[in-house]
Amino acid sequence: MAVRDAQKTVSERSERCVTFSLGDELFRYEVNGETPCTFGLPWAPPSEKIFDLHFFWQLWSNLAKAAMRKDVPLVALRNMSYMLNDTYKIPSPLDVNFFGQLSKKYCSWPDLRHSLITEGHPSIKLSFLERVFLMLEEPNSCLLAKAWFYVIMFAAVANLTSFILPETATWIFEQIWGHHHHEKHQAIFSTVCILIFTADYVSKLVCSPFVRVELVQPSEKYFVLDESQRAVVPQTGIQRCMDFMLQVTNIVDLLAILPWWLDLCFVKILPGAAFLRIIRISRIFHLFKSARYFDMVQVLGLTLWKSINLVGIVFALITVVGLFAACLLQQTEVTMGSDMSEVFETVPASWFWIFCRLIGMKDTIYGKGKVQSYFGIAILAVTLTLKGVLWIVPIARIRQIFSQEYAIVVNTSKARRKMVDDLLAFVAGSDQSQVQSRNGYICCNLQLYSITKEEAWVPLPLHQNEEVKLEKYRVALSSSASAAEVFLDILWKPGAAMKNSANSLPQGTLALTLVGGWRLPDGLHEIQWEVPVDTFSTEKQTVTLKAATKTTDTVTFEIAWTGSGEDDEPREIDDDLQMDYRDFQKQVLHLLQEQAELIQEQQQCVQEYGQRLKGLDTKL
């Protein structure tokens, strides 16, 4: 049985993927623990799915927000693992841990990250059509995908330039092919551009029924833990095809090529169909596809999209206010017999006149004229006053939407960069997440005695109220690029008083060991540690360097910082995990509902006990 379990473990380990995407490069952590490996993209799409590590960070972040903690309960990760296994059709979804070996009751992101990069996730093979779709849709999947993306962007920019600046395009073609043939070659170039766009759209459309979008383009929106424990993804080929066609970017692609094909097919059959040439300006939509690579363009696009309903409501209110004012103006101006009565002869004409004033539209045929009667002037003054009120609310709301979208897009981009930087720092042995805090660094002094004396400041994790173990932590002896480095093992064990309080001063045991170095000075024979064991007092210990291994024995310090007064400072909160106001309201209402249900149950129990006591009194 033990041999079978061992074989099963080895088999599962060999079928797991330890390669991840970091955007424009791939990452694989060397299991032997020496150095990380980052390498460029492959030429062709990979045969197995390579997840972006940021996808797992998003899953963990959503679970942490739901739990209102800086770490995620193991139960939540187990349920998410089952959902991923079930969605991606992993055999024995209840037996396989998608995230690797996790055993802590509460897992932080470094715990999950370490498990992923060392153990990997189950290997998931991609079909041929999925690899083709991935190449056409994701520029960072391989070098061929990047080349195809640049071809599409070049064709879009060149085709749009020939439409907006025809004289410049004509001059360029004349310089290349001469004065007599430039029109022919210009038409050929436009046709080739449309054929490239068509091939891109049709190829993805043909592949879409056979592509698992939740795998090729994974998103945290598909994986939300609820009572169903099922990912909400399209299952059938028709659903996948419709999902592809209804995506905004694909609608943009279709609008960019449809007018050209309709013009080609119907302009000779239906002479009136020549109006289709007018909407060829839709080719500009191809440039919008690149919006997802620019943060501010995304913010503006999402703000406009989410403000459509609000703008529609404001337009309707302006129409109603204008119609009411138009009825009054038509009656007052015609009745008073002003010189401009022909402008207000009918209610629709009066409405259009007042509507132009409400939206600031000028230089229109039917928008001329002035109000001359005193009643008309009063009506116009009241109406224009309402105009300011009508525009205050939507502008404030649009500004709020812009602020929210800006925060989401920018914070996501920052979180992605921070995740990559922390990962590379972790595998390089210089991870600062365990030793930094908002109150600054707590450092000790390390002195190295050789022919000369050199020293370095080593940051310590004394502010942590949980056990921290840093292996081969790198500390440079100077700020130059070629400076010598020492490799340290740091073990911090907080005391019971510090574990029970989030705001207690450092108290516990600190163990320090030099385990190696790089470009260490010649003649190095001993080192000295100077550690702040109290708030304003230090302790020094000297150890001898072992020349053969370039290591030292472990030195231990008892840390006991003291201070007076009470600790009123709140627990440190990770900015990346702060919930927005709506999520906070939902969580509070959920907790209040649970508390109300618990109170009702307790009331029922009290009533039952009261009835039992009455029965006992009756018997007595």
UniProtKB/TrEMBL annotation:
Subcellular location per UniProt equals: Membrane
Gene3D superfamilies named in the record: Voltage-gated potassium channels. Chain C
Domain Ion transport spans what residues?
Answer: 146-384
Q: What is its main location?
A: membrane
* An MF annotation (GO) of this entry: voltage-gated potassium channel activity
Keywords linked to the UniProt accession: Ion channel, Ion transport, Membrane, Potassium, Potassium channel, Potassium transport, Transmembrane, Transmembrane helix, Transport, Voltage-gated channel
GO cellular component terms? voltage-gated potassium channel complex
Q: Which InterPro entries match?
A: Ion_trans_dom (IPR005821), VG_K_chnl (IPR028325), Volt_channel_dom_sf (IPR027359)
Q: Alphabetically, which GO biological process terms does the record hold?
A: action potential
Query: How does it sit in the bilayer?
Result: Multi-pass membrane protein
Q: Superkingdom of this entry's organism?
A: Eukaryota
TM ranges are: 147-166, 260-279, 310-331, 343-361, 373-393
UniProt name for this protein: Kcnd3 protein
Which species does the entry assign this protein to?
Answer: Symbiodinium necroappetens
